[in-house]
């Protein structure tokens, strides 16, 4: 009975999360960013944001634990351009498995702040394995973290989470992050690549795109 209930719950979560339209995912991602900005417990140091080479947000990432656990999520990412502005958003996916010790399903909003150009370049080439291709750690937060020295900010990628559920913290070591080409094409059309999205200055925009970029600006400013 528990297995049946668990399977049904996973199926429902996967359906509502993974099969949303591109516009819906952009709006969900923007709302997740706004919630993080409003959360006083999540205060990202200005040094981390100033050094950000890219930012990715995975709203409603599903984490499953039943002996063998895992996580899956679809998100949105922007890259800092040479003039300091942010690129048009493009879609990415996150997946991974790990050992778990209880029965449960939880949804988390995961924010990733890329600190190195090299880690962004690896992802743009196709995919990146977190922890192997780029170092990843829970991001520093709060006033004390803001006063840290340069030596305190060593990781290539920092993660921040907003959680509703029973698990504590998040581990994404070993998770694979890659592109969601279908969603990019759905939003922008014409078999567009992530590289073309990042380099473009004149893509057709929409309310969802503009709202997401405003949320990024509010986060980083």
TrEMBL record:
Record keywords: Lipoprotein, Signal
One annotated GO molecular function: phosphatidylinositol binding
InterPro entries on file: SH3_domain_YSC84-like (IPR051702), Ysc84_actin-binding (IPR007461)
Domain (Ysc84 actin-binding): residue spans on this chain: 96-216
CDD domains the UniProt entry points to: SYLF (cd11524)
Signal peptide annotation: 1-22
Keyword rRNA-binding: no
Keyword Signal listed: yes
Name used for this protein in its record: SYLF family lipoprotein
Gene source species: Sulfurospirillum halorespirans DSM 13726
């Amino acid at each position: 009975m528990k297995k049946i209930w668990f399977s049904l719950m996973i199926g429902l979560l996967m359906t509502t999360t993974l099969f949303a339209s591109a516009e819906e995912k952009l709006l969900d991602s923007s709302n997740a960013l706004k919630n993080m900005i409003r959360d006083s417990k999540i205060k990202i140091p200005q040094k981390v944001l100033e050094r950000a080479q890219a930012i990715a947000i995975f709203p409603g990432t599903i984490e499953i634990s039943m002996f063998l656990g895992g996580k899956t999520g679809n998100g949105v990412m922007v890259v800092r351009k040479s003039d300091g502005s942010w690129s048009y958003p493009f879609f990415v996916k996150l997946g991974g498995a790990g050992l778990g010790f209880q029965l449960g399903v939880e949804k988390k909003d995961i924010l990733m702040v890329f600190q190195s150009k090299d880690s962004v370049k690896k992802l743009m080439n196709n995919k990146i394995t977190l922890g192997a291709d780029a170092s990843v750690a829970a991001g520093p937060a709060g006033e004390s973290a803001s006063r840290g020295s340069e030596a305190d900010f060593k990781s290539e990628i920092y993660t921040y989470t907003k959680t509703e559920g029973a698990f504590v913290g998040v581990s994404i070591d070993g998770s694979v992050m890659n592109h969601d080409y279908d969603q990019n094409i759905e939003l922008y059309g014409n078999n567009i690549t992530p590289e073309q999205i990042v380099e473009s200055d004149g893509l057709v925009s929409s309310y969802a795109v503009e709202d997401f970029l405003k949320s990024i600006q509010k986060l980083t400013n």
